[in-house]
Amino acid sequence: MSVGSARAGPRGSPTDGGLIRRSRWRAENVDARVLLVEDDPSIRETTAMGLRSVGHTVDAAADGPEGLQRFRAHRPDVVVLDVMLPRMSGLELCRTIRSESSVPVLMLTARSDTDDVVLGLEAGADDYIRKPFAMAELVARVGAALRRSQRTDASDRITLGDVTIDPVGFTVTRDGQEVALSNTEFRLLLELAQRPGQVFTRELLLERVWGYDYLGDSRLVDVAVQRLRAKIEPDPARPTTVVTIRGAGYKAVR
Asked: Where are the beta strands (DSSP E) in the chain?
């Protein structure tokens, strides 16, 4: 059953018909602190229940200011927030959180407009989920975001021109100055940098960086590359470190 649909309401199944198996989930994932910001009481309750059913600790807020206060007080491992929030929009909340932290942010949206989705990604969100959504899908994406934030696959520093990547320290510098990247931006840069010169299709990057089947939605990759370039390229309009291969994808250049 879907969460956020008229049929689901407060009766939406947080375990999605048994698709979530607690023992398997806990064997593969570390229990995490999740901040959930959702103004609809029934969706908030159902979603929180579903996340708790797989072992996560959930701190729930009903509007933007309350969500920001709880974020600063508790420093969660991942944030799930609705785009349409009272008193402070989800986009504004996401921008504020991103300015203070690289914590993974997943946005929930009932809108189907492509521009609205892109605005969320440009605000700093790592992922978005359309309402109504299956609880199993949200749990899977939260897990993927957590694994991305906790794991690196290399130990040696990598240099791309004036950009240096430290996989162990989880840091990036340009001309000796540290660059603040989100977890997704860091994973994207690291994936490309580990194989300089190799062309990565958008589909391959979705699989390797996001770790989930996003049904070919390449906007996640394009917006993440755009945000990354704004931080590491001297001239983002004429990139020299992460370049586009027309009709194919992206590659890193030493």
From this structure: 2-3, 33-37, 57-61, 78-82, 105-109, 127-130, 133-134, 158-160, 163-166, 171-174, 177-179, 242-245, 249-252
Contact 200, 248 (CB under 8 A): no
Of 150, 180, 206, the one marking the end of a domain is 150
Q: In this structure, which amino acid lies at residue 110?
A: A
For residue 239, what are the domain limits?
158-252
- 51 & 101 share domain: yes
Task: Indicate the helix (H) or strand (E) that contains 228.
Answer: helix 219-232
Residue 140, pLDDT > 50, answer yes
My answer on whether 205 and 118 are in the same domain is: no
Q: What is the pLDDT of residues 191-214, one digit of tens each?
A: 999 999 999 999 999 988 887 655
**Quick one: 42 and 163 in the same domain?**
no
Summarised one tens digit per residue, pLDDT across range 145-183 is 888 776 555 557 899 999 999 988 889 999 999 999 988
Q: Give the HSE-up count for residue 227: Cα atoms under 13 Å, Cβ half-sphere.
A: 27
DSSP 84: S
pLDDT digits (tens, 9 = 90+) for 203-248: 999 988 887 655 557 788 999 999 999 999 999 999 999 999 999 9
What is 97-160 written as a DSSP string? HHHH----EEEEE----HHHHHHHHHTT-SEEEESSEEHHHHHHHHHHHHHHHH--S--S-EEE
pLDDT of res. 202: 92
What Å distances lie between residue 205 and 14, 48, 78, 125, CA to CA?
Answer: 30, 30, 21, 17
Residues 61 and 183 placed together within one structural domain of the fold: no
**Residue carrying the six token digits 């983002």:** 236
